[in-house]
# Entry
Amino acid sequence: MKLAYYPGCVAQESGKELDRSTRYVCRALGIELAEFPSFSCCGSGFVDEANEVLNVAINVRNLAIAERAGLDVLTICSTCQGMLSLANLRYRDPRVKERVDAALRPLGIEYRGTVKVKHLLRVLTEDGGIARLQQKVVRPLGAVKIGAFYGCHLLRPADELDWESAEEPHAFEDLLRAVGATPVEYRGRVMCCGFPIQFVKPETAGRIAGRQIEDAKAHGADAMATPCPLCHISLDAYQNRAEKAVGHPLDMPVFHLPQVVGLALGATPEELGLARHLVPVAPALAKMGSAAPSR
# Structure
C-alpha cells in the first residue's frame, strides 16, 4: 500500500515523536509513504471560521497534489483529517467549486475529486485489517489499561465524515485489543480536549482536559492514547495546567496512537521518541512489560 503522507504541522515540529513512530509502524506493516514537501497547513479549523472558501481552497490544493501522483492521503492528525475530508465534501457544492477553481486556476492546479483522506487509525483497522495487525504483534502490551481519546474532528460532523458513531465508536478499542492492551470505556473519550480555546481561555481549557483525564482514570486507565497531536498537547504537554484547574495531580501518561502500535510491533521507547513526553510514561511501560525510556 502506498499513500501520500500528510504529517501536518505538529508532527514536523513540537511533536516529532509522532512522525517518528508513524514511520516505524508504516515500515513494519509495509505501508509506503510518499512525501510531498509542497503540502501546506490544513488551516486547523481557524481559517475555516474566517473564510470557508479559502480553507477549502487550501486543502483542495493539497488533495490535488496527491491526485496528480495517483495516491490517497494518509493523515496522522484528527484535525487535519477533518479539514481535508470536509474540504473534499464541500468542494462538491457547485458554488464553492466555482470559487475554489477560480482561486487555484492561476496556480495551474486542477482537482477532479478522486482522492480519499484516510487517518492512520482507519488505515490500520480497515485497509490493513485488525487480523493482519494482530499477526504482526511481537510484544503484546500485557495488562495495561488504556483509555482511547478520539477527540472531536476524527468523528465529527458524523453525517459528513461517514465513518464511526461520534458517540459510540469502537475502532480504537478494537486496535487496542489487537495489540494486547485492555481498552477502557469512558464518556470523555469522545469529548473535546480543550485545545481550541487553549490560547483564549487557558483555565477553561485546563478544566476540560482535566475532566477527561479524571474520567479515564476513574474508569481504571493506566494511560491514555490519542490519534490527534493537538489532543496530545492538551492532555500531555499542558497536563500541568489541567492539574491546576482540577486542583490535584493527574499523573496520566498519554501516548500517540502509533506509539502504542509501535511498542506492540517491537519498537523500543527510544525509537518511538517516548522520552519527549512531558508526563513520564514509565509507569505504563512497566505494566506493558516494556523498558522505560531514558530521560
Remarks:
- The longest helix spans residues 52-68.
- The chain has 14 helices and eight strands.
- The CA atoms of residues 195 and 234 lie 6 Å apart.
